[in-house]
Amino acid sequence: MKHPYDEMYAADGSVRENYRSYSEWLQAMPDEVIARKREEAEITFHRMGITFAVYGEDTGQERLIPFDTIPRIIPAHEWSRIADGLRQRVRALNAFLHDVYHDQEIFKAGRIPSGQVLANSQFRKEMIGVDVPEGIYAHIAGIDLVRAGEGEYYVLEDNLRTPSGVSYMLEDRKMMMRLFPELFGRQSIAPVDHYPDLLLNNLRSVAPQGVLNPNVVVLTPGQYNSAYFEHAFLAQQMGVELVEGHDLFVRGETVYMRTTQGPQRVDVIYRRIDDDYLDPLAFNKESMLGVPGLFSAYRAGNVTLANAVGTGIADDKAIYIHVPEMIRFYCGEEPILSNVPTWELRKPDDLAYVLDHLPELVVKEVHGSGGYGMLVGPTASVEEIAKFREKIVAAPEGYIAQPTLALSTCPTYVESGIAPRHIDLRPFVLSGKTISMVPGGLTRVALKEGSLVVNSSQGGGTKDTWVLEY
Amino acid sequence: MLSSTADHLYWMARSMERAENTARMLDVTYRMSLLKQIFMEPHHEWRAMISISGLHEDFEARYPEPTADNVMYFMALDKKNPGSIYNSLLNARENARAVRGTITSEMWEALNQTWLEMKRIHPKGVTEQGVSRFYDWVKERSHLSRGIAYGTLLRDDTFRYLRLGTFIERADNTARILDVKYHILLPSPSEVGGAADYYQWGALLRSVSAFESYRKVYRDQITPKRVAELLILRPDMPRSLMACIESVNRLLQEIGGARAKELQRRCGMLYAQLRYGSIDEIFANGLHEYLSAFLERIYDLGDLINTTYFWSTDE
Predict the structure, then answer these.
(1) Neighbouring residues of B47: CB distance < 8 A, sequence distance ≥ 6
(2) What is the Cα–Cα distance from B232 to B250, expressed in whole angstroms?
(3) Which residues in B lie closer than 8 A to residue A220 (C-beta atoms)?
(4) Which residues of B have a CB under 8 Å from any CB of A?
């Protein structure tokens, strides 16, 4: 593994142009002041209850996501290229989703093997032939990017189901402006706080046909979901109702919410519940979270679900490798953002190579998410690798592998002072009548030395992300 | 407004109000117990405190005797007692959490902070630092959250359901305090007057922050009848039954709704009964009987609020 790219310092130790102003400020800042501010940030986050629940621990256990006060700064020209790449990619992904649930032209053209898609558990037969407003399926996409070198960004994965983290992006910015207002006067940093407006406009733009003043709601699994804070936050910021399954009911293929003044019609549901739990009549019968009859109302075109049912087929890790081909096929363009080279373990040759090189590679479950169930070869112990090898051999089709990228690092506060830690970037792309996004996204940082896993469930933290306006 | 949101707001306010009233009751009982009466059996006032709360079965199952320490622990800090101050503050916070998008962030932060502080309070600390200090803290947190609601919330249904919960709970609590204390304090109605009487009725008035008000209104010695009048019929006494029901009545008119007719009718009747009630008549028919009937009506009203606004089945 070559020496990783650092966002702040060039290889010769000099400060990069985009960090010059910040670095000067940091040099002049007494350590005690920074320490006090960091403490203030933690107290404030606790008081505001900006927490997430952790699975596998006691019910109701809440934790703070560690917040680091050194921002990740992206120069204007880099961002503009990333933004173009994101637009292109999300356009292709939506076109692909529409295609696989309609005419399946991409299979007919022989560009992607149909078997891998149609036999995938994420493919929803129920969605075949269902028309959705504007042909948009992934209304909110979180595209995870990593940087390996100068101008070298890779897409690590596409999150097209219920990507989370945008509330931390917004809260991190608010916190930085509260702690260090003077920093925002020194440089022209692109604002992000209008994200909820963009989101609401986007959701309203995909309302069922003929609805003039759509009633939008956010559907949450409830208080004990790990991302509950975010659900409540977005509902409040958009000024719409936050509902749980029991707040809604379906009558005559129309969705209503129970209010103190009687039933009120619902037009657009920004749902933060997985497909399986949406409707016990259509999907998982055991689901207590969903709304019986919701899918029938959806099929009838009387309510919009964002994201659509069945988007999981396009963010599956086995499908990921085909995205560049989708971009060529649907957009007639070369991909602006590259994929990370990927081995598919269902292929015997790839499997053989990967099994020989496990200590160098990252192996992921095809359907996994949140950093659960993955092997990071270079940091894993011999036993961990041996254990994982058994799992792979038992069901190779369930895994993909990628080279261990030298993820870029960013200076970060750790116990011993400031040290480089690996980071990634999750921008949020909104698709409706048009594609919109706020500059930047959520920067996640792996706080453990050398660790490449940035997920909050695995001890990752976050940073404010600045896109410079020029 | 979503039915479930209204439900959470209502119970958030009720739980906070309950925590405050429990603290008030414990505080006054503690003060009274310091003024021991020879004619009282041991733990008399603490036994009464338990029966006031309607939690005596749970208490008797888990504690050998209603000593001051046992009752105070049970009512304030016991995690197994659903009505303890500990759990009331937890409920207030959990309900607030469920509607944090509906209330102001100051409101949520205050309730969250209260709960975080409650979690850190150690039983030993409470006794060492003096129980009254703990009760004062509970009252202060309740005052704070009410003040924030007043100072920051839009005057829409969010505010109204909060207030509704506050007044229903408060009416219930004032009636209970009066009922039980009346029984302890007045073994025979003739024993009126005397220093002990003064202190004990004084303590009762203090428990509902009415001591100074009593002085202002009556400018005379403290008598049970006047105390009852002040706490039942005076509309200008903020914790009186009259003041609470007057507010509930107004709030129900403002919230309205096509299905609220029966609820409004019943509340209106209760209001009229207080509005045109006389303390002589109440005493002639028996104060305890009057208060028991009132508590039943409050319970029915709560039930009807529930089915009218929160959990109606109208699919």
Answers:
(1) B66
(2) 18
(3) none
(4) 1-6, 94, 97-98, 100-102, 105, 108-109, 112-113, 116, 157, 161, 255, 257-259, 309-310, 312, 314-315
pLDDT at position B69 over 60: yes
Q: CA of B113: which chain A residue's CA is closest?
A: A47
Residue A241: list chain B partners with CB under 8 A.
Answer: 2, 5
**Helix (H) / strand (E) containing A148:** strand A140-149
Maximum mean pLDDT: which of A89-103, B212-226, B300-314? A89-103
Which one-letter amino acid corresponds to residue B22? T
pLDDT at A128: 96
Secondary structure (DSSP) of B285-297: H-HHHHHHHHHHH
Report the gap between the CA of A63 and the closest CA in chain B (Å).
13
List chain A residues with pLDDT less than 70: 1-2, 50-62, 368-372, 457
Per-residue buried b or exposed e for A245-259, using 16+ beta carbons within 10 Å of the residue's own CB: bebbbbeeebbbbbb
> In 3-state terms, chain A is what percent helix, strand and coil (to 5)?
35, 25, 40
- Which pTM does this prediction carry? 0.81
Contact A131, A301 (CB under 8 A): yes
Interface with B, mutate which of A234, A260, A266, A289 (most B CBs under 10 A)? A260
Interhelix angle A195-205/A228-238, nearest 10 degrees: 80
Question: Residue B258: which pLDDT band, with cuts at 50, 70 and 90?
Answer: confident
User: Cβ separation of B3 and A259 shorter than 8 Å?
Assistant: yes
